[in-house]
Amino acid sequence: MSLFDLSGKSAIITGSSRGIGKAIAEAMADQGAKVTISSRKPGPCQEVAGAINEKHGDGTAIAVPANISSKEELQKMVDATKEAFGKIDIVVCNAASNPYYGPMEGISDDAFEKILSNNIISNHWLVQMCVPEMRERKDGSIIIVSSIGGLRASPVIGAYNISKAADFQLVRNLAAEYGPDNVRVNAIAPGLIRTDFARALWENPETLKRSTAGTPLKRIGEPEELAGIAVYLASRAGSFTTGQMHVVDGGATIT
User: Fold this and answer.
1) Could you give the residue numbers annotated as active site?
2) Contact 184, 246 (CB under 8 A)
């Protein structure tokens, strides 16, 4: 059996109708997991789930739209996953929001609160909904997709970076709490990835040139280049890894 085999496991991946979340869901399904595809809009979720089911067989994926800002919708997603797959072994908190681009002095209270709520508190909600059964089984993997922004300052995405730094500490705290029950909690910190979410940072050629000029690989990443680390953290290969922040950034943070 492969160290990365996920047969018999089920996973919830938020924000998985596109970008990094979609790539993670597809990779986990490739390794044998059942997956719940979720984002705000039903159509894109159904499209991704349908493609996975066509590749791996009906019942491999379900589509459950949910807005991460709604505790009620998150609970319905958890309940639907349990009904479809019987249990939840893996949680990937990937969905996030960043409604403001500009200096901190210009951000409204509403925008700041939305960033902190969606990028930190919503992750906490989803973990709290899923972790009891993991602790009872003495097995589970929780993955929070953060960002190298949590390690750096920025004149334009400062509030977002603050939320992502908080996610690193959320991971460390939860890892300490749940470790005795063999539930592992880790973060992935992507660099600049070619997603719609990060479009403002790579679509402009001059911005892209500045972003990649000092990086060893001289390019931005693709969503599928994040999928492998998620599979590792969810599988037997990562069974002794917890409380860690895994940077996947083409070397951006070393220069």
Assistant:
1) 160
2) no
Alpha-carbon distance of 10 to 60, in angstroms, equals 9
Backbone angles phi, psi at 10, to 5 degrees: -125, 145
Q: ∠ at Cα 84 (78, 89), nearest 5°? A: 60
**Residues ≥6 apart with Cβ < 8 Å to 138:** 181, 182, 183
Token pair recorded at residue 39: 């984002």
144 close to 24: Cβ distance less than 8 angstroms: no
How far is it, in rounded angstroms, from Cα 105 to Cα 23? 35
User: How far is it, in rounded angstroms, from Cα 237 to Cα 231?
Assistant: 9
Answer yes or no: are the C-beta atoms of 68 and 14 closer than 8 Å. Answer: yes
Sorted by sequence, the CB contacts under 8 Å of residue 81 that are 6+ apart come out as: 10, 12, 36, 62, 64, 88
The reply to whether the predicted model has a pTM over 0.85 is yes
pLDDT the model gives residue 202: 67
Q: 187: helix, coil or strand?
A: strand
In this structure, what token pair is assigned to residue 123?
């992750």
Edge-to-edge strand list for the sheet holding 10-14: 61-63, 34-38, 10-14, 90-93, 140-145, 183-190, 245-248
**Low-confidence residues of the chain: pLDDT under 50:** none
Domains and CATH numbers, the chain: 10-250 (3.40.50.720)
